[in-house]
Amino acid sequence: MNDPIRRRPRQPVKAAPARVERMDSEEFMQLLRRNIWLILVVVLLVIGGTAAYLMRQTPLYSAQSAMALTNSEVRISQIDTQMEVYDLTRARVETELDRLRSRSFAEDVASRLDLFANTEFLPVTEDGPPLGSSERARAVIDKLLKSYSVQRTGESLVITIMAEAAYPQLAADIANGVVNAFIDQSVTRQVEGIERSTEYLRRQIDTSGEQLTLEQMQMADFIRENVLDDAELPERLRRERSHMTSVLAVMDGRAQGDTAERQKLEADLKEVEDQLAERTRNEMQLSRMERSVDLLSTRYQTMVERLNQLEPQRDQVDPDARQVTAAEVPYEPSWPNIPTTLALALPAGLVLGFILALLRSSMNRQIWTGAQATHLTQLPNLGNIPRLAGRRLFGRKHAPTRFLRRFPRSEFSEAIRSLVTIWSSQGTSNVRHRLAMVTSALPNEGKSTVATSLAAVAALDGQRVLLLDFDPHRAGASLMIEGNREAHPLGALNDGSVPVGDAIYPVPEYENFDVLRIDRDSRLTPKNIDDFGETVLPQLTSEYDLIVIDTPPVLGMADAARVGILADETLVVVRAGKTPESALRNCVERLEDSGVRLSGTVLNDIDPRRYRQMNLGGGYGYY
């Protein structure tokens, strides 16, 4: 056996490799099992909260109507006041959609449905606007705009109106009212356009008629004043001019000078020529007046014809849309849809519960698996010990020594036997006697149970085993064994005042299995431990094949680190789901700093059900 007095230097610890945060199926199932109640509580809270919220909601009824826009629209041309047909463009459709969402359109719908005075649509409250006020009108319009939505699919000309209200009939009225208001407004808009055009044409016809009459009268007066209705007058004047010109020529041939007769004849000729010139100017003026009258007459006739075309169309106006689906009164509310919402709340609660479980798992830095302990300490995990079942009568736990003899093929027994086998295989072949220390980071982690069970299984396998109870504070290992539990001072054992043989007592129902217990007043000082290693321990190693030392927890007390220098191997017990990662890390570091040789960890107190599901071993009962 190695010299128990010589302190060993701390062994260098390899840096832990980066842990790959990847969850396999086994870890996933463990996560669910550890947090199943959290997940169930979250699911129940989500479903219950959703149900309570839905119960407080006011039921809403939905109604749907649809209308199809025409492929073209008819408008009055502002140039010639004629009806013209234009193709319906995308911009025009978007404009109509915006009009359906406008406040002015909503105001028209509210007026048609008499919503401004409808207290069911918008109840009157003490702090709300009174009936007939402008504030209430704005509030009604705001609520109406929120009550219906306008939808269009792709490039389709079909517009769907979805309306919601607290009453079924009101929802259908709003959906149909929007469509009817749009159709009526389109008809009204066209009729108003036709009426404006006809009114304009009437005014123009009246003006043109008056102007035509006036010019006709002026032309008649002009003809009468200038005797333009005498068509033979120009011919008579030309004959007179020709006659007088001939007479003057004869008088010139006879050499008749400047006589009175000649002067009178020349004056008459000049007067005739002036009349002919005046006649020509008047005829030209009359021609211009006739053309003006003809133009006014043509314009007048054109406007009369356009008026005759527009007036019949007033009663034949086609709307810009037609209703293809009329909203029906709904029988069931669309909101709250309790079955569907609760069905969605179930997976939502599961997802939320799983997320909280992940957060809890990430924040809960406790050891659950041997792989986790190995990654943290860089020490092998030598065994996974299931939880020791309790007695049925009062639920008290079995004593390990009695349970191992009574149930040799139980999961607990097989796990301890497997631990002994794995741990024994780590020893060197030239070492006959082995001294093992069993400790833990914190109290209540099962180190005494593991130490007692380890010693009992080794004894059942035929080895001579001694259990040293070096936990003077609780003496957990000794209390688990029936029979003589007398304790002895460590100093009395070291100086020989109490013979070692007298301090050892056998374990009932076991052969080759003894116990040595030190009393509560014993102090595990370095000197007492060195004296024990020099005087008492050689006597024990010569008599026993295996010595198991049960010590106090490492953290908070220095006893385990001091006693550990006596041991060839040290096992650190980890309680599944209880031991924090920081405690295990500090425990291993403290033992290594004290020169204690660590063999590995032992994962204790695994739930037997999880123990079987994780396939970590078991007895015949498992198979």
UniProtKB/TrEMBL annotation:
Keywords, alphabetical: ATP-binding, Cell inner membrane, Cell membrane, Coiled coil, Kinase, Membrane, Nucleotide-binding, Transferase, Transmembrane, Transmembrane helix, Tyrosine-protein kinase
EC number per UniProt: 2.7.10.2
UniProt feature coiled coil, ranges: 255-282
CC annotations in GO: plasma membrane
Leader peptide range in chain numbering: none
Family stated for the protein in its record: Belongs to the CpsD/CapB family. Belongs to the etk/wzc family.
Membrane topology: Multi-pass membrane protein
Transmembrane segments: 36-55
Record PANTHER family: FERRIC ENTEROBACTIN TRANSPORT PROTEIN FEPE, TYROSINE-PROTEIN KINASE
Residues covered by the AAA domain: 446-576
Polysaccharide chain length determinant N-terminal domain boundaries: 27-112
Protein name per Swiss-Prot or TrEMBL: non-specific protein-tyrosine kinase
Organism: Paracoccus aurantiacus
Entry keyword Transmembrane: yes
A Pfam family it matches: AAA_31
